[in-house]
Prior knowledge:
Elements: H1 2-15, H2 18-22, H3 24-55, H4 58-66, H5 70-85, H6 88-112, H7 118-142, H8 152-180, H9 183-201, H10 221-233, H11 236-266, H12 270-294, H13 301-319, H14 325-353, H15 359-388, H16 390-420
Helix pairs in contact: 3-4, 3-7, 3-8, 3-9, 5-7, 5-10, 5-15, 6-7, 6-9, 7-15, 8-12, 8-14, 10-15, 11-12, 11-13, 11-14, 11-15, 11-16, 12-14, 13-14, 13-16, 15-16
Amino acid sequence: MHKAIATLKALKARLGLVLLARELPFSYFFISRTLSRIGENVFSIAVPWLVFQLTGSTLQLGLAFALQVVPSLLLAPFAGVYVDAASRKRAMLLVSEGCRVLLGLAVTGLSLLGSLQVWHLYLAVVAHAVTASFLTVAAGAAIPALVDQVDLTRANALIRLSRNLCDILGKVMAGLLLAWLGPAYTFLANAALTFASAALLLPLRGIDGGSPVVRGWRPRVLQDFVSGVGILRRHSAAVLAMADLVVINVGIPVLAIALPVISEEVLRQGAAGYGLLTGAMALGAIVATLIAALLVGLMDEGRLSGLATVLFGLLVVSLGFVRALEWGLLAMTLIGLTAELVSVYTSSILQRTLPSDVLGRAFAAQFTALRIVPAVVFLSAGSVLQTFGVQTFLIVGGSITVLIAALLLQLRVRGAREKNR
């Protein structure tokens, strides 16, 4: 009995669950991010549904989705500079969560009064996207101030685990709220979740930026952003980690386009098979957060990230040869696992390697790249798939991913050898 209890305690420590009890500021932050992520998913489901209900237009629906991406992309450099120059707590509490509370209440009020129009929803989407850029950048830059360096990977794994579970819970919750209570009370629930998230940020201390690079009340945003990226370039471990993540995010939209075709034309499973394949990827991502925590200290995280990226490419190639649903589910589970491992390790490597006063701009650069790259792939991949077929598309695309990932891994190995001389 005592041995089982000791084993359970050791497992909790390896998974990082003790952080929630030992590091009170991090536990506040963790719960805040959990509630905020549920609220984000409620909002992201409710708005497109309501736009379609008001207009019946797929064109308007597409515009609503586009407006979620463009403003946050344009404002990411400013968000990075602001987060490095000012208070990261203020960026999360006032600029992000506070604005989202007001946003949810405004849409609720307009809906209850019967005055809600589609252009109100477009404005809400733009405002929500603006807050997303500040919140994502500030949250990533704040974690090193909340836990010890040795616990960074476990902390990031816990945050990613919460994110993955909330993506499922939030979407289901949004659907049920819309069906049972209607849009007004769905947005009210969104505002309540965001308010609770903001309240939990109030006790946090010591997470300011205070960058010596960014000066004055009106910093030169582009110059300061570029100077931060210039500092990033001097840290090869951080650059290679971000490169791994970019490679993964070339593959994700490729899979998003290919999976419906695989399910319909290759596996002959239709919509049910498509749902199972995407669900398997989500399951793999959840498992990955547990594995990342368990592997802390056992191997260099840069090499683990590189190996996971190579394996991701090989799994994409294997998907091109799959003929049975069972093998497709296995491949997609492992694809989700490897992609999520790279995400966890990238955040930890950036936080551990870079000076605190450039973390905001580093995460802003990552935020920008992870929106531009998938957009470019989405625009081009459809025509390539149509020309060459889904299996050739996956085999060639996966092979290119493997080659790039292997090159990045070789650069890591070479750099480690030169460092040890």
